[in-house]
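User: Please predict the structure of the protein below. I'd like the answer in structure-token form so I can feed it into my own downstream comparison script.

Assistant: Understood. Taking the following sequence of 234 residues as input:
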Amino acid sequence: MTESRKADAQTTPAVVLLSGGLDSTVLLHHVAMTLEYSPIHAVSFDYGQRHARELECAEYQATAVGVHSHTVLDISFFGELVQAGTSLVEGGGAVPDLADVSPADRDQPPTYVPNRNMMLLSIAAAYAEAQGISDIFYGAQAQDEYGYWDCTADFLERINAILQLNRKTPVVIHAPFMDRKKEALVLLGQELGVDFAHTWSCYRGGKQPCDTCPTCVERRNAFTEAGLSDPLGE
């Protein structure tokens, strides 16, 4: 973003997809405090995931930032549609430990949710267009241990190309962390004053993170590489 664009952003609204995980929480603070978009409309989704811990954190973080609105959309039917192809939703297969996912499968592990980002971003685009908002942000980042195709530069470029077909109110999806690893997001979050105790990453839910599922391992490594302690691991 250019300096002139940043100045204009002070009166430019944005939609932020907020899961309540580490990445989307740091993104929310970044859009509000660094990029200075306002007002911010946070959108979260109940898509049939195994637990509500992330959504509880999303509510906390939306309040902490002081968003204009925080909408939680119930699309739990989606989980029923895709449960045969993912371990991340209720009724799906067991969430694997990262150590049990073969290197060959880590580019699209069992925790991938079929077409999730395409669906969530499409809904967010409809909401943004109806509100007259041009900018949408989501928290794709450069994952170290595994990867999803709908968090890549190719995906972002192509979905934006489709959205530009809109004849009156096209929206643009931004993923400013796409080339940053989670370690960088931990450091940025610390700089922005993010309360990481109110973020949730573990795919299994529970009272404490399991420390062995793919996202728990990635989170633990990120805090270690950043030289910081994870409040959820204490």
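That's the full token string. The two ends are 37 Å apart (CA to CA).
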